[in-house]
Request: fold
Amino acid sequence: MKDSEIIGLYWNKDLKAIPASMEQYGAYCFTIANGILDDAQDSEECVNDTWLRAWNAIPPTRPTVLKVFLAKITRHLSFDRYKARKSLKRGGGETMLVLEELAECIADESDVEGQVNARELGEVINQFVERLPEREQKLFIRRYFFSEAIKTIADRYEMNENAVNVMLSRVRKRLRIHLSKEGYFDE
Reply:
């Protein structure tokens, strides 16, 4: 089924939208959630919550790219669940590493909220990522959108882990400079 047909089902509040979404994007959304949560049961619950969130969002929202729309919902739900789990028990994992790595680029949440809204910041980061060379862009997205482990990224792109770490570190430094120039971060 085409994305436009699935969106049409949501738009018309046809219950067939949910199984169509599950069939088309269930595994994709699960991969995103599991990359963040590293727990199959929690990931499955986030994916199921994704369909409900999409049901409630469409209409009034009409996504231009359904895959990206569902991925964003899944990511937000997964990070919310991760934060809830983290508050119950302190733990490591890939998500904590990803958040720590990005913390050096972005001022703390209260400072950012005081200056601009999160949507504008997201657009500035997206524009930065779109201008990266293809390889850096792919590594950045794999690490900071999908929360993939450095080893997984290194294996995928046939690089050693140190090279991936160095490349991501350099991109984060450039991101920090870019955000500073845009007024989102004080050096």
